[in-house]
Amino acid sequence: MVVKNEGNFKITKEQQIKELIERVPPILNVDVVVFKKDLTDKKNIYKFLIGHRNPNKLVEIKEMEEWLFPGGRMKYTETPQEAAERILRKELPGVKAQLKKLGTAISDKGYDHRANGVTLFYLYEYIEGEPSPNEDLDKFIWLNSNDMIKQEFVYDIDASILSEMEAIIRTMNTTEDEMIVEVDENDKEIGSEIKRVLHSDNTRYHRAAHMMIFTSKGDVILHQRSFLKSNGAGLWDMFGGHQVYGHTIEQTAKQELMEELGVETDLKFKKSWLFKSEKQAEYCYVYYGVSDGPYGYDRNEVEQIKIFDCEKLLNGEYDKEYEFVEPFTKMYLEDLRSFWKELKFSIKDN
Predict the structure, then answer these.
(1) How far apart are CA 277 and CA 292, in angstroms?
(2) Is the Cα dihedral 164, 141, 255, 122 positive or negative?
(3) H/E element, 348
(4) CA 222/CA 322 separation, integer angstroms
(5) Rounded to whole angstroms, how far apart are CA atoms 212 and 190?
(6) Dmax over Cα atoms in the chain, in whole Å?
(7) In this predicted model, what pLDDT tens digit does every residue of 216-262 receive, in sequence order?
(8) Exposure of 335 in the CB half-sphere (CA atoms within 13 A)
(9) Burial class, 82, CB count within 10 angstroms (exposed 0-12 / middle 13-18 / buried 19+)
């Protein structure tokens, strides 16, 4: 018999201390790695935000002067994600960034004179704002991995993970490790969770934005999913993505469209509905719009794009040559029939 833990255990401070004394586990640390694309470089280079230890803090913790990622101990009452959010607010005040995923975990045994620990590095994508000096960090710089390695007094562990972080960022949306918004059965936000977890439990709910984009002639634009994708690799699909932590569903729709088609266009909301399978439960927010390009896309996300005749697609005339993600694309074409029909008629009238 399988006994399911409903997550109702309430651990007291005394219980936690007893467990710590008996087992002596490593201390858990959480670091926040904020990144952004270097717009001055055409080689897909990323910059990372690092801070300088406040000299007043050095006396307290007896550490040397260093540049490092914002970070700290995780409290026993926190989840790792909650600790990361607290550290972002506390050590990078003024910076708005979006939690993307857990990057890596490193043992820091021998690097910290106070205790042996494990550090979790959470990746955050920079949105806006400038960090303000605070009790932990007194100044900040953006550096790419090459410059960071050359920078004097950079914490060794932070420098050692840069190549791994860059590789993770480049393939960010091809895996199941992304942090996405979790909602309840009534579609109310309740927190965040790793996509892999929510894709394997249909008693827990999440959201996705689905975008149907048409040309001004009334044809539909679809993309072939990257062969790097962990799900549906190589299939033809509408544009879309999961609502990630820190974004609204509307922001998600716009960002995903830019990543997968390289365009900004006026998106109109059609409907939201619950898709439930044996593995997952997803609230789908459907948007539609018109764009004649020019198109561009992230090749980690998309293999290619193609324009299809809506009527032929619904009649199955492409089915021998192309495999489509079901049930979404054809269902949405039916839902939006009057819209793309009107586009076709307007072209004929002109």
Answers:
(1) 35
(2) positive
(3) helix 337-349
(4) 11
(5) 28
(6) 81
(7) 999 999 999 988 777 788 999 999 999 987 789 999 999 899 989 99
(8) 17
(9) middle
Domain boundaries, the chain: 20-170, 177-349
Do the domains 20-170 and 177-349 sit in the same CATH topology, yes or no? yes
- 33-55 pLDDT tens trace: 999 987 665 455 789 999 999 88
Query: Which CATH code is given to the segment(s) 177-349?
Result: 3.90.79.10
Calculate helix-pair angle for 328-335, 337-349, nearest 10 degrees.
60
Q: Which residue has 């997952």 as its token pair? A: 280
Question: What CATH code is assigned to 20-170?
Answer: 3.90.79.10
Place of tokens 């952004």: 36
Amino acid in the structure at residue 265? T
One DSSP character per residue, 240-276 reads EEE-BTT--HHHHHHHHHHHHH----PPEEEEEEEEE
Other beta carbons less than 10 A from residue 275's beta carbon: 13
* The pair of three-digit structure tokens given for residue 305, joined into one six-digit string: 């794009």
- Give dist(CA 298, CA 280) in Å, integer: 26
Residues with Cβ < 8 Å from 234, sequence gap 6 or more?
224, 225, 227, 303, 323
Q: Which helix (H) or strand (E) holds 189?
A: strand 189-194
Asked if 262 and 295 touch (Cβ cutoff 8 Å), the reply is yes
Q: Amino acid letter at 189?
A: E
